[in-house]
Amino acid sequence: MSTEEKSLNFIEQIIEEDLKNGLTQDKLRFRFPPEPNGYLHVGHASAICLNFGLGLDYKAPVNLRFDDTNPSKEEQEFVDAIKRDVEWLGFKWDKECYASDYFQQLYDWAIELIKKDKAYVDSISSEEMAIQKGTPTTAGTDSPFRTRSIEENLDLFTRMKNGEFEKGTHVLRAKISMRANNMLMRDPIIYRIMHAHHHRTGNDWCIYPMYDWAHGESDYLEQISHSFCTLEFLPHRELYDWFLNQIYDETKVRPKQREFARRNLSHTVVSKRKLLQLVEEKHVTAWDDPRMSTISGMRRRGYTPNAIVNFANTIGIAKRDNLIDVSLLEFCVREDLNKIAPRVMAVLDPVKLVITNYPEGKEEWLEAENNPEEEVMTYRQLPFSKELYIEREDFQEEAHKKFFRLTLGTEVRLKNGYIIKGESVVKDENGNITEIHVTYDEDSKSGSGSEASQRKVKGTIHWVSIPHAKEAEVRMYDRLFTHENPDGNKEVDFKEFINPDSLKVITGYVEPSLTSSKELDHLQFQRLGYFCVDRDSTAEKLVFNKTVGLRDTWAKVSVQ
């Protein structure tokens, strides 16, 4: 990568500096290391774009490595979902790896640590260990088992592996220092006993490595050159390097851990634990509920991979945690959908409109453009008849001067159709309008070239023909949380900020062409917003999810 191509972020500067100092281009290798204990969220999307983006920029391979060291929380379902999400975002990994691929090697290295008197089996309780570790301002104290002989440690560790002990009776700890300033260096746990079925290794192991032990050593085994983590792993870097020092061969690439800040998104939570809570407590329907900040939820809602990647590239990376306004993500979604989403007719709050002077039983097909953003314009045919549905808000019986839609005595154009004039209304016993009666100008058909067709009127409204309209379930999604930072106050349960109006299900009517639409098809319901076809949709029962409105109704300032 040349610095002339673009200004470099601090991560790229680190890589460039390493290349100048002798690391060869062919030794560059990156990785994305998710734990398969939940579905990926928007924060992971940024990390995916960073690591795979570096791979593309530097023409370097990127591994997808699953940190599957905790079988009590991990499932094959999550592995499959993670792979699906990474592929959907448009990225390809070089090698599919698992920490469990290295369980034997990690165990063998742990044996070597014991033999070098750099690890020992500890048998105190977790509560005792927490006390014995001290505090950030007071030194820890040695475990009474820290002086066990190498022979005894080897024997106990072997028996731990063989399943002779119950969970919690023993752990293997690194022998570093109980007086280290960094509390993570105070004899950290390397292995713990877990009698749990592993999604890949089955019941082969009764002990499992801790993240800090598995992560750096896995990087080393895969010859990862740069291991990029979020800021909470900064204190772990010292331990990462200590573990590497124990097994590093100078003829090989030594991985380098460096940290970047989380880019938190407003009106969301991105903790997998809290997302799981939302699912398990039925605040949402599933991990891919369109209100969730998961990649699968955003996909189902109708967000595009291009929009998410553009968002990640726009916010970039930083050294300090930051709260990004979700309106920026929605702006990226609108910008992408504007280019690709066909414009279609849909009415979500219908009122009947009758063209009194239109011939009874007549039916015609009008030409409508699919997307004005297309380089080569395409068209479709729309059915038109005497009776239509229009949006209730597009008519006012008595309107103010700045209301440019349909009123009594004024004219508007029906999109792709004719100019109509409001004549009268029909009301029910409660005074609610049930029908709007209008007349049309037969010579004003859009695109006919007639003088009347070129007559200017102040408003244009959309519609669907009642005899041809298809009923549809429309799920109107809004932000899941009313507070911009629902997770910001640790004294308040984040669930208190759940938006009770985050989902409203309504019945709408759409043009008949949509009966052939398929799952995840993106559409713009003209003048209403962007929608996509939900997986629940069938030709007999259409279901659409609202992706985003045509403009931001939440933003404090406009996105220019």
Automatic annotation (TrEMBL):
NCBIfam families noted in UniProt: glnS (TIGR00440), PRK14703.1 (NF011291)
EC number(s) reported in the record: 6.1.1.18
Domain tRNA synthetases class I (E and Q) anti-codon binding, chain residue ranges per copy: 460-534
PANTHER family attached to this UniProt entry: GLUTAMATE--TRNA LIGASE, GLUTAMINE-TRNA LIGASE
Entry keywords, A to Z: Aminoacyl-tRNA synthetase, ATP-binding, Cytoplasm, Ligase, Nucleotide-binding, Protein biosynthesis
Protein name: Glutamine--tRNA ligase
Cited SUPFAM superfamilies: Nucleotidylyl transferase, Ribosomal protein L25-like
Keyword Chaperone among record annotations: no
InterPro entries cross-referenced by the UniProt entry: aa-tRNA-synth_I_CS (IPR001412), Gln-tRNA-synth (IPR004514), Gln/Glu-tRNA_Ligase (IPR050132), Glu/Gln-tRNA-synth (IPR000924), Glu/Gln-tRNA-synth_Ib_cat-dom (IPR020058), Glu/Gln-tRNA-synth_Ib_codon-bd (IPR020059), Rbsml_bL25/Gln-tRNA_synth_N (IPR020056), Ribosomal_bL25/Gln-tRNA_synth (IPR011035)
Domain Glutamyl/glutaminyl-tRNA synthetase class Ib catalytic as annotated: residue spans: 27-338
